[in-house]
Design goal:
Layout lengths: L10 H28 L4 H21 L2 H18 L4
Length: 87
């Protein structure tokens, strides 16, 4: 068996194919993330996030932990950034 035998290992075509498949996977992943992050928000999503913020504040009042309050404040900040109004 010689070192130049094409049946040993992947060969150049196989490596190039794996490289191109990996690049395609990364590109498709980023395109999917960009789509999810930039799609328009509808009223159902807004209502769900508003309900989550209310539940967070109820939880923060019952536990009286500062990190829970900080989480609720961060949720409100993200809501304002997303919908451009107070929850």
């Amino acid at each position: 068996m010689s070192v130049n035998d094409e049946s040993v290992g992947l060969g150049r075509r196989g490596c190039l194919g794996l490289l191109l498949a990996g690049v395609a996977f990364v590109v498709l992943t980023f395109v999917g993330l960009i789509y999810v992050m930039t799609r328009p928000q509808d009223s159902d999503i807004e209502a769900g996030e508003r309900a989550a913020i209310e539940a967070c504040w109820k939880s923060a009042q019952s536990t009286e932990r500062s990190f829970t309050e900080e989480s609720c404040k961060e949720m409100e900040k993200q809501f304002v950034r997303k919908f451009e109004r107070q929850p």
